[in-house]
Amino acid sequence: MAEKTHDNDVAFIKALADVLRENDLTELHVKREYGENDWLNVRVAKQPVASAPVMMQAPAAAAAPAPAAPGAAPAAAEDPSQAPGAVTSPMVGTVYLQAEPGTPPFVSVGDKVSEGQTLLIIEAMKTMNQIPAPRAGTVKRIVVGDGSPVEFGAPLMIIE
Question: Which 3 state secondary structure label does DSSP give 63?
Fold first, then answer.
């Protein structure tokens, strides 16, 4: 009977891998409980493609000429995650800059935000996670686009 459970677990893991691939996800984590002290804890992940970070940085590089600050802007454009005031993603998911399509964005460049104010939403496994401002300041740059995928630690915006 243990062999049958093992076969079912293998089939379940293969199905998770299919879900990962078909939905262009980078990671899934599932805990399946069968009973007391009997469970299956599965993490299925794929290595990020080498070009993925470059694709995420391309919009940032295109937005770099817009700021007029001659000294600080070029350094921030090279690697937004290293910029002072960078807000990074706490999870893997899809970014939404507004609560619903057609509504105003949570914040725009130039807005003053207070600590704890919602900056955007990251959807992860059909759960909408509000991302709060870690500190008060002014939104200097929004690095991600609405509906774009993000990785853990990826820069989302810069607040100074």
Answer: helix
